[in-house]
């Protein structure tokens, strides 16, 4: 067994976080199918309550489809400032138990509690206490997975949702993985799961039966990861200093746009959203990317890496405009636009460099 079996990892995942916050704050929503998002024709569900999930309503589902599946669905506009504030409460609780906290999003994180700061008898009891404190201090429920590595802990946190926890011990890890469908594995998305099925791989046991050479030939650069997780092996540490690699924002228009000025205005709004994050976080990058989705759902991107950090709102706007103008005018309607800044330079992120536009 690898050395990592001595670690004690907890994956905490809030239950239907955004929707649960809305139900907590508005009693009339409790027990009802709730979607966080907008019911507009081009709206998308950001999150769904468990009552809504029974009807097949999930995040990223178009609002019109969600309403078709659940006519009683109640849409609530998102309040991200509130969700962030609650997330800070939850992470403050985590910090009482370990310094090794790796957030994955506002509503989930890995905790390495091997050092046992609180002197609690087991990691299982630690997870139970953390969940109890979250409920007491925020009024929200969380689920947890407990195991000896991150891969298994994340899988385990889904096992008893909502408001439950599950442990995968070193003596059961490999056999438990074999019993699961590969579609549940972190890092195996729908496209990869379909490809694996075509190779005769539908369960962890099927995956374990394949040689590393076979996986490399058919699944490329991720083959070694699949080979290891099929055996319950994941040596990745919980990394509290994991750096964010990009910041982006995108929007779907109410109708397909063809006028240059309307499309450019949409790009500028997304650039401003991204800039607000960059300025607040004091994170600045060199690469600007503009994404376009046409009415026929074709996606294209245009990127440019600049000679200096993008450290002003004007510079980000100018770079974004130059990129979108490279694909204008367009004969096809534009359904969605997005702007992303990446290639952050932490060593210089606090230096407000003057940025030339393009060479």
From TrEMBL:
The UmuC domain extends over 9-189
For this protein, what is any one GO molecular function term? DNA-directed DNA polymerase activity
Q: What does this protein need as cofactor?
A: Mg(2+)
Q: What class of enzyme is it?
A: transferase
Pfam families, per database record: IMS, IMS_C, IMS_HHH
GO terms in the biological process aspect are:
DNA repair; DNA-templated DNA replication; error-prone translesion synthesis; SOS response
Q: State the compartments where it is located.
A: Cytoplasm
What detail does the entry give on cofactor binding?
Binds 2 magnesium ions per subunit.
Site residues by UniProt (Substrate discrimination): 18
Binding positions for Mg(2+) per the UniProt entry: 13, 107
The cellular component terms of Gene Ontology attached to this UniProt record, alphabetical and capped at eight, are: cytosol
Quote the catalytic activity from the record. DNA(n) + a 2'-deoxyribonucleoside 5'-triphosphate = DNA(n+1) + diphosphate
Active site residues according to the UniProt entry? 108
Q: Show the InterPro entries listed in the entry.
A: DNA/RNA_pol_sf (IPR043502), DNA_pol_Y-fam_lit_finger_sf (IPR036775), DNA_pol_Y-fam_little_finger (IPR017961), DNA_polymerase-Y (IPR050116), DNApol_IV (IPR022880), PolY_HhH_motif (IPR024728), Rev_trsase/Diguanyl_cyclase (IPR043128), UmuC (IPR001126)
Keywords (alphabetical) are: Cytoplasm, DNA damage, DNA repair, DNA replication, DNA-binding, DNA-directed DNA polymerase, Magnesium, Metal-binding, Mutator protein, Nucleotidyltransferase, Plasmid, Transferase
**EC assignment:** 2.7.7.7
Origin, by domain of life?
Bacteria
Q: Which family does it belong to?
A: Belongs to the DNA polymerase type-Y family.
Give the function comment from the record: Poorly processive, error-prone DNA polymerase involved in untargeted mutagenesis. Copies undamaged DNA at stalled replication forks, which arise in vivo from mismatched or misaligned primer ends. These misaligned primers can be extended by PolIV. Exhibits no 3'-5' exonuclease (proofreading) activity. May be involved in translesional synthesis, in conjunction with the beta clamp from PolIII.
Q: Which HAMAP family match?
A: DNApol_IV
What is said about its interaction partners and assembly?
Monomer.
> PANTHER family this protein is in?
DNA POLYMERASE KAPPA (PTHR11076:SF33), DNA REPAIR POLYMERASE UMUC / TRANSFERASE FAMILY MEMBER (PTHR11076)
Q: What name has this protein been given in UniProt?
A: DNA polymerase IV
């Amino acid at each position: 067994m690898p050395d990592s079996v001595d670690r004690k990892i907890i994956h905490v995942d809030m239950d239907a976080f955004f929707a649960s916050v809305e139900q907590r704050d508005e009693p009339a929503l409790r027990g009802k199918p709730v979607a966080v998002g907008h019911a507009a024709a081009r709206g998308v569900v950001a999150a769904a309550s468990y009552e809504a999930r029974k009807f097949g309503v999930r995040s990223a589902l178009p609002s019109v489809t969600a309403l078709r599946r659940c006519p009683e669905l109640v849409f609530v506009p998102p309040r991200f400032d509130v969700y962030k504030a609650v997330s800070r409460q939850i992470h403050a609780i985590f910090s009482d138990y370990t310094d090794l906290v790796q957030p994955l999003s506002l509503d989930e994180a890995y905790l390495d509690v091997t050092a046992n700061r609180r002197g609690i008898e087991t990691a299982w009891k630690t997870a139970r206490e953390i969940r109890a404190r979250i409920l007491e201090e925020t009024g929200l429920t969380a689920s947890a997975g407990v195991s000896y590595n991150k891969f298994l802990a994340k899988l385990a946190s889904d096992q008893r949702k909502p408001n439950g926890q599950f442990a995968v011990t070193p003596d059961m890890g490999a056999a438990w993985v074999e019993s699961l469908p590969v579609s549940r594995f972190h890092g195996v998305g729908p496209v990869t799961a379909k490809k694996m099925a075509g190779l005769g791989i539908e369960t962890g046991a099927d995956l374990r039966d394949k040689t590393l050479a076979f996986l490399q030939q058919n699944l490329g650069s991720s083959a070694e990861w699949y080979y290891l997780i099929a055996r319950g092996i994941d040596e990745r540490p919980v990394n509290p200093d994991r750096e964010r690699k990009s910041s982006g924002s995108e929007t779907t228009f109410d109708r397909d746009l063809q006028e240059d000025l309307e499309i450019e205005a949409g790009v500028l709004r997304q650039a401003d959203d991204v800039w607000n994050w960059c300025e607040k976080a004091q994170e600045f990058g060199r690469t600007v990317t503009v994404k376009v989705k046409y009415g026929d759902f074709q996606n294209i991107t245009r990127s440019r890496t600049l000679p200096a950090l993008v450290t002003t709102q004007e510079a980000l706007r100018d770079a974004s405009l130059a990129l979108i103008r490279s694909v204008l005018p367009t004969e096809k309607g534009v359904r969605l636009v997005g702007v992303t800044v990446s290639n952050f330079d932490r060593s210089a992120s606090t230096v407000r460099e003057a940025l030339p536009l393009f060479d």
